[in-house]
Design brief:
15 helices; mainly alpha
């Protein structure tokens, strides 16, 4: 990203020596340090997943609010699941793995919990089993589910590595969520990605028109 260690450490309010240890895997970043990276335009989705979108779709989505992006992600997930069921092949299996657990991102908004709570409920696991999978004790998981403690970089990575929960969903980062949607669209077969993009764009336009009519 053409950013020096000194610049990065300044962005996230830590010393350069501490940041150097983060890069070597000797230290973790706290939740608010990750948030600072988002606020300074760092592509956190790329850092955690290795996925980077070209901007073909992202340029549209980056203008939208986080709540609307979640709605678009929900629709996109449903489309991928539809093609996974109706079309066999490794391509759709790979895409399905990317969206299989994204229901928890939308679901937690309907509850008093968060992504950790939503994921555990989607898996239908007791807290003890979920805690074991994440490598924490039940007390810490309970605190994570109640937002009384916030995840560090290791837990953010584990959620993606094991369940493909994007870091943007944990960090509530709108630009990161635009990256997630852009990457998923680019992973689709080109004609289907273009079709879904046009649908989402028209849906956004219809929502704006409806809002204007109410005013």
């Amino acid at each position: 990203m053409s950013v020096t260690q000194e610049q990065m450490s300044r962005f996230i309010h830590i010393s350069q020596s501490y940041y150097s240890k983060v890069e070597r895997g000797e230290r973790l970043l706290a939740y608010y340090e990750l948030k600072s990276m988002c606020e300074h335009g760092m592509d956190v989705h790329f850092i955690f997943t290795g996925q980077r979108c070209s901007g073909r779709y992202k340029d549209f989505f980056v203008k939208l609010e986080y709540a609307e992006l979640l709605g678009h992600l929900n629709i996109l997930s449903a489309v991928v699941k539809y093609f996974y069921v109706t079309r066999a092949g490794a391509h759709w299996e790979s895409l399905y793995r990317q969206v299989a657990y994204l229901g928890c991102v939308e679901e937690y908004r309907k509850t008093e919990g968060n992504v950790f709570y939503g994921l555990r409920k989607q898996l239908d696991w007791p807290q003890q089993k979920m805690a074991g999978k994440l490598g924490v004790d039940v007390k810490k998981l309970r605190a994570l589910e109640n937002s009384k403690t916030l995840p560090d970089s290791e837990l953010v990575y584990k959620l993606y590595d094991m369940y493909c929960i994007p870091p943007a969903a944990v960090l509530k980062d709108a630009e990161g969520m635009a990256n997630v949607i852009g990457c998923l669209l680019e992973m689709m077969e080109k004609d289907k990605g273009e079709f879904v993009f046009r649908f989402l764009r028209e849906l956004h336009a219809a929502a704006l028109l409806s809002a204007s009519a109410r005013i």
